[in-house]
Task: structure prediction
Amino acid sequence: MSNSAVPPAELLELAVAAAEAAATLVRDRRPGQLQVDRKSTATDNVTDMDVASEALIRSVIAAARPDDGFIGEESAGEPSRAAGTDGVTWIVDPIDGTTNYLYDLPGYNISIAAEMAGTVVAAAVADPAHDRIYSARLGGGAFCNGLPLDATTTVTPDALTLERALIATGFAYSPTVRAAQGRVVAELLPRIRDIRRFGAAALDLCHVSAGRVDGYFEVGLAPWDVAAGALIAREAGARVEAIPGGPPLPRSVLAAKPVIFDALAELLHDLGAGATMGPSEDDA
Ligand code: IPD
Ligand code: CA
Result:
């Protein structure tokens, strides 16, 4: 099937089906003792359920669309797996928030995006602990369990300013990058309402989409952390860009309500938030 002939609605339906299947697997079939391996650092882990989830998602997608490309976090080191032949590529994090999952905390999720010609056109993020599925199609709005999302919603009637903004962030696995990120947060804290660190980038972006936080930023992310959540956040009315002075999307991301975006971007730029990851950590 040629690229232009693939309706994004069809890709969205498949993204949601695969995310639901993986959500059921990782929540209901969680073993008493997870098998845990180390990745980039001692605290960057992969469990047997990350691998099982990716295998399930891959098989669900391949059964419906065998010619599509596939980039999954747990098979990203296998380049032959990325290429497809029909212009559609799936970008998948089988468990985003693996540390939450490891500790049996809510906040882990399954993140699935379908990309055509370099643009994400359909996205699903499943939050199994809350029975929520976030979804979006390019130009079609964003939804949670079928209800429209509006990132511009504010929690108080007052005009939102940076001083009143609740901002989520995340930290890289590299200890040196984390130290620099901690210094940025120390400078940021007195200038905003508060900080949240939920532990899963895709859901951080969904929290922005739902207005549960006013903004989110992070440096050191991978395509599968950002692809689905960024479309959902944009379709919900948030602005999503790279952090000024930081690496391009998806390596750095700033998502926020439009009303505070510029002020937050300027502050993060002044605090050097985008520069917390040096060139040596680029491939960590
Ligand atoms: C991580 C989570 C975390 C973020 C890290 C990501 P993973 O993904 O999204 O919140 O701070 O940068 O790598 O490793 O749990 O899939
Ligand atoms: Ca992951």
